[in-house]
Amino acid sequence: MKSEEIKSLFVQFEQASATIEDIECWLARDLQKLLGYSQWRNFENTIGKAKEVCKNAGENMAYHFADVSKVIEAGKGAHHEIDDILLTRYACYLITQNGDSRKEQIAVRTRHRSRTITTRRRYYESRT
Fold first, then answer.
1. pLDDT averaged over the chain?
2. Contact in structure between 37 and 31 (CB atoms under 8 Å)
3. What was the pLDDT predicted at 105?
4. Which partner for 49 in 9, 27, 45, 98 could form a disulfide, CB atoms 3.0-4.6 Å apart?
5. What angle do CA 103, 108, 111 make, to 5 degrees?
6. How far apart are CA 61 and CA 52, in angstroms?
7. Which of 108, 93, 112, 111 is nearest to 46 (CA)?
8. What b/e readout covers 59-75, taking b as 16+ CB neighbours within 10 angstroms?
9. Angle formed by the axes of helices 89-97 and 40-56, nearest 10°
10. Over the stretch 116-127, which tens digit does the pLDDT of each residue have?
11. Phi, psi for 83 (deg, rounded to 5)
12. What stretches in the chain show pLDDT beneath 70?
């Protein structure tokens, strides 16, 4: 993935966020598209893995993964209610950590995080 595509992916991620009750969050179905998942059921499996990690870390899973529903247009003016999930930034992080690494969007996020962690580690080690 080229540098411009990577920057575009990060911009799209930030633009997809919303603030609800002073909490920055993303809708899972929006994130699904950004991360290259074409089918909700496959993305739900990744979310399930991320929820398990959240729970094992002792975090409040309901806070980071809030079940919601939304109404979408279903053709010919009909409307249909579908399930969605409000995700905190931490939940998004866990999803990318547990996502399909064959997807370029997931691999980019993983590489970016690895570089950030390495840079921070070196910075703190140099200060001691």
1. 83
2. no
3. 75
4. 98
5. 125
6. 9
7. 93
8. bebeebbbeeeeeeeee
9. 110
10. 445 555 555 666
11. -80, 145
12. 1-2, 107-128
Give residue 63's pLDDT: 95
Q: How high is the pLDDT of residue 40? A: 94
**Residue 6, both tokens:** 């990577």
Tokens in use for 104? 């370029």
pLDDT tens for each residue of 44-69: 999 999 999 999 999 999 999 999 99
Query: Domains in the chain: how many in total?
Result: 1
Give CA–CA dist 121/71, Å, rounded: 45
Domain limits for position 102: 3-127
Q: Six-digit token pair at 9?
A: 């992916």
pLDDT for 115 = 46
Q: How far apart are CA 55 and CA 82, in angstroms?
A: 25
